[in-house]
Amino acid sequence: MSNTLESYVNHLVSVITVDGRNIVGTLKGFDQAVNLIMDECHERVYSSHRGVEQVILGLYVVRGDNVALIGEVDEDLDTRLDLENIRAEPLNECKT
Amino acid sequence: MLPLSLLKTAQNHPMLVELKNGETYNGNLVSCDNWMNINLKDVICTSRDGDKFWRMPECYIRGSTIKYLRLPDEVIDLVKEEVVARGRGRGENRGRGGPPRGRGGPGRGFGGRGRGGGGPGGGRGGPGRGGMKKKEGFK
């Protein structure tokens, strides 16, 4: 069993960066340093008193140093999310 | 697709680079290397708070200071074209390279000579070849 991000390529992924941001997009490529290519990505900004704000970003290369977590997103489930009614505390940045 | 190869393809395209310190650099990519160090030209630098601006003809950014790069959407399509073009070029060579490979044709170096009649030290174990030669006096 191989432990790479290979299985996530061309799938929708959710990335949490070290500064606590959540970026959702299609993973197009990666390397050993976990530098990522994210296509059609957007940032989801969570708030405890407003709905989720989606900021469209486009094509990004994210440097691996800044990646904390990558998770595969179920696209079906994601489209069924009612972002306007989600309330959540924003994440803090990673403490090194 | 490797991020660094995407970057190589993005040469001469405009891009936005955000550094770990929050500064943003907008400019055209001149070159990049395996450490993601990049050279931009016609650069506009914006401070973290967005209140200060600098304009410079070129700049060099050390890869380790980069947080992310924002590229124009068309760059990803350019990579696909490059991969197709490269694959096609290599395929043509493969067809032509068949026969010479089997025969060890002229100009192929030691491959041809070894098969044919064995030039000096070809494949026949000429004098001083074929296995390890013990050097005298090397105890």
From TrEMBL, chain A:
Tell me how this protein assembles: LSm subunits form a heteromer with a doughnut shape.
According to the record, the segments passing through the membrane are none
Q: What does this protein do?
A: Plays role in pre-mRNA splicing as component of the U4/U6-U5 tri-snRNP complex that is involved in spliceosome assembly, and as component of the precatalytic spliceosome (spliceosome B complex). The heptameric LSM2-8 complex binds specifically to the 3'-terminal U-tract of U6 snRNA.
The answer to whether UniProt assigns keyword RNA-binding to this entry is yes
Q: What is this protein called?
A: U6 snRNA-associated Sm-like protein LSm8
Localisation per UniProt entry: Nucleus
Q: Which organism is it from?
A: Petrolisthes cinctipes (Flat porcelain crab)
| One Pfam family named in its UniProt record | LSM
Stretches assigned to the Sm domain: 1-76
**Keyword Acyltransferase: yes or no?**
no
Superkingdom of this protein's organism: Eukaryota
From TrEMBL, chain B:
PROSITE patterns from the xrefs?
SM
Q: Where is this region: Disordered?
A: 83-139
Domain Sm, by residue range, is: 2-75
Tell me where the signal peptide lies: none
The entry's keywords: mRNA processing, mRNA splicing, Nucleus, Ribonucleoprotein, RNA-binding, Spliceosome
Q: Which domain of life is it from?
A: Eukaryota
Any one biological process term the GO annotation gives: nuclear-transcribed mRNA catabolic process
Q: According to its UniProt record, what is one Pfam family this protein matches?
A: LSM
- One GO CC annotation, please? spliceosomal complex
Self-association and partners: LSm subunits form a heteromer with a doughnut shape.
The similarity annotation says: Belongs to the snRNP Sm proteins family.
Name of the protein this chain belongs to: U6 snRNA-associated Sm-like protein LSm4
Q: Which gene encodes it?
A: LSM4
